Amino acid sequence: QVQLVESGGGLVQAGDSLRLSCAAARRTFSSYIMGWFRQAPGKEREFVAAINWSGSSTGYADSVKGRFTISRENAKNKVSLQMNSLKPEDTAVYYCAADSSVRLARSPTEYGYWGQGTQVTVSS
Fold it and tell me: Are 114 and 99 contacting, i.e. CB atoms less than 8 angstroms apart?
């Protein structure tokens, strides 16, 4: 079982930056891909970004491309999401996810492990 813990959420103003972190607890699987998803009240969970553990491949939703950056650290057992130029529409609960697939995935159904989420609120 892969246990994921998110951190770094908070309340910021539009245009500010936040950095989210996701760490795998108890056991590390270097072959797992990692993804970030978000869900706003009344909306479906949507894909934000994903990365393979070598760091050689990344993917982003069009809505965040150019503003958000996903990266790895700590011997590939941890991933971060740097969020710049935040907008009120970025407000959501952000979830970290992991999957055993080698290839990047964008659908929540393709990820088998999830964290509890961290709240990000962007005010006008």
Answer: no
Say how many Å lie between the first and final Cα of the chain, rounded.
40
pLDDT in tens, the chain (124 residues): 678 999 999 999 999 999 999 988 756 556 788 999 999 999 999 999 999 878 889 999 999 999 999 998 767 678 999 999 999 999 999 999 999 887 899 999 999 999 999 999 999 9
Q: Do 32 and 53 touch, CB atoms closer than 8 A?
A: yes
CA nearest to 15, candidates 67, 71, 92: 67
Provide the CA 63 distance to its chain's centre, in angstroms: 14
Looking from the CA of 108 toward its CB, the CA atoms found within 13 Å total 13
Task: Tell me if 95 sits within 8 A of 114, measured CB to CB.
Answer: yes
Structure tokens at 47: 């894909």
The helix/strand/coil state of 16 is coil
Is the CB of residue 58 less than 8 Å from the CB of residue 121? no
Amino acid symbol at 63: S
Q: 50: how many CB neighbours lie within 10 A of its CB?
A: 25
